[in-house]
Design brief:
The chain is mainly α. The protein is built from 18 helices and six strands. The chain has a three-stranded antiparallel β-sheet. Pathway: Carbohydrate metabolism; tricarboxylic acid cycle; isocitrate from oxaloacetate: step 1/2.
Length: 426
């Protein structure tokens, strides 16, 4: 199959690639060479496939999300986060012994160098945890200086294990710093998710019993966030990694990309928005109007998605989970009602219907995090914790696939050549 482009009276042919779910893409890699300089322009990469990937399948029109062929609904219902991490990174669900070895290896690497405390101490208590976690992840390089030899299976595996082991410790430290708690080193006798909870919440003078309702809710949330193909932060990880920067540096860059309120930072922004609406008397209609007013910068946070033009399947699962978790924990949160009210109005509103704006993963996730006792400014860190295996899987795929350095082109719109003007002539 071929696609033809006509430019300046001449036709050029390009091969068409077909994915395993019958998605087609015009391979324009020879466009510039064939035409003597023509490039494509695609602001925000809305129509650009940056790679071929076998990790995650997403169909935004139909609201489908699958990791390595398994539906997100199936995995969220049945799997553990660690199994999903293994699946994403290595391509298959682990056998019992593979999973045990995977977790044993992670536990063996979960120590974070004491010197890292000094770096953490350097941050003010008010620092946003995303900035802290991104910086600490980068700082890990100093304590694990050898770059990953991607030709060596063992080297690759060890780098991945180290990150999966140390990253939750850093996330928990960021929270403990913020809440003034002494640092905690976790408990190897617990599962991965249970240990995260204990590292985050154990008070120095008290025992911490993991509540199975909370652990199961967090397990589900982490799975739902674990990968989402070539989104902003994942593309960042792949592009940074494509320069052969190390794994930790690539992930640190991805964390920064995730932080923005148009991406992962939306989960914090949603709760702040819902709180604001509550404090303003709970008038959802007023905020619907604001969201539709092009003169008003307000957007309905947690609504809309670059790829989903249908329900985000993760939002469906999370909405149900929010009801279950709050019910099981006996938490009543008035902002859940405000969220449901906004959703109902938006789904019946012409503006939102026409633009195919549906709730995304962030619309209800913050309500669950809040019920679990996680402070608002930690929400995006929780997202990063969930996304870590996806970033690692994508980085690994990119490096093993020997992808070239990511380097887009541009259409230059600036000044043509001009001469330097001395200061007194400007
Ligand atoms: N509230 C009001 N209007 C919206 C919203 C919203 N949340 N989202 C999109 N629109 C409108 C835009 O104003 C635009 O209208 P127009 O066609 O009249 O100009 C139209 O819908 C298309 O929106 P774009 O911004 O062009 O869509 P894009 O694909 O570039 O952006 C994005 C997607 C960034 C997610 C956007 O919908 C948004 O800002 N949502 C709110 C933030 C959010 O929830 N982000 C989390 C996304 S999920 C994730 O990253 C984990």
């Amino acid at each position: 199959m071929k696609a033809k482009i006509e430019f300046d009276g001449k036709f050029y042919e390009f091969p068409v690639t077909k994915g395993s779910e019958d998605e087609y893409a015009i391979d324009i890699s020879t466009l510039r060479a064939q035409t003597g300089g023509l490039i494509t322009l695609d602001r925000g990469f809305k129509n650009t496939g940056s790679c071929e990937s076998a990790i995650t399948f997403l169909n935004g029109e139909e609201g489908i999300l699958r990791y390595r062929g398994y539906s997100i609904e199936d995995l969220a219902e049945n799997a553990s986060f660690l199994e999903v991490a293994y699946l994403l990174i290595f391509g298959e669900l682990p056998s019992e012994s593979e999973l045990n070895k995977f977790y044993d290896d992670i536990k063996a690497e979960s120590n974070v160098d004491e010197e890292m405390h000094k770096i953490l101490d350097g941050f003010p208590k008010s620092a946003h945890p995303m900035g802290v976690v991104s910086s600490l992840t980068n700082a890990l390089i100093a304590f694990n200086p050898s770059s990953v030899n991607v030709e060596s299976k063992e080297d690759m595996y060890n780098a991945i294990i180290k990150l999966l082991a140390k990253f939750p410790v850093l996330c928990a430290w960021a929270l403990r710093k913020r809440t003034g708690q002494p640092l905690d080193y976790g408990d190897d006798s617990l599962g991965y998710v249970e240990n995260v909870l204990k590292m985050m919440f154990k008070k120095a003078n008290q025992n911490y019993e993991v509540d199975p309702v909370i652990a199961s809710a967090l397990n589900k949330l982490l799975i739902l966030h674990a990968d989402h193909e070539q989104n902003c932060s994942t593309s960042t990880v792949r592009v940074v990694g494509s320069s052969h920067a190390g794994l930790f540096a690539s992930i640190s860059a991805g964390i920064s990309a995730l932080w923005g309120p148009l991406h992962g930072g939306a989960n914090q922004a949603v709760i702040e928005m819902l709180e604001g609406i509550k404090e303003d008397g709970g008038d959802t209609k007023k905020y619907m109007q604001k969201a539709k007013d092009k003169e008003d910068p307000f957007r309905l946070m947690g609504f809309g998605h670059r790829v989903y033009k249908n329900f985000d399947p993760r939002a469906r699962i999370i909405k149900k989970s929010a009801d279950d978790v709050l019910g099981n924990l006996g938490v009543e949160d008035p902002i859940l009602d405000i969220a449901k009210g906004l959703e109902k109005e938006a789904l019946e509103d012409d503006y939102f219907v026409k633009r195919k704006l549906y709730p995304n993963v962030d619309f209800y996730s913050g309500i669950i995090y809040r019920a679990l006792g996680i402070p608002t400014e930690m929400f995006t860190v929780m997202f990063a914790l969930g996304r870590l295996p996806g970033w690692i899987a994508q980085w690994r795929e990119m490096r093993l696939g020997k992808e070239p350095i990511g380097r887009p082109r541009q259409v230059y719109t600036g000044e043509k050549l001009r001469s330097y003007k001395p200061m007194d002539q400007r």
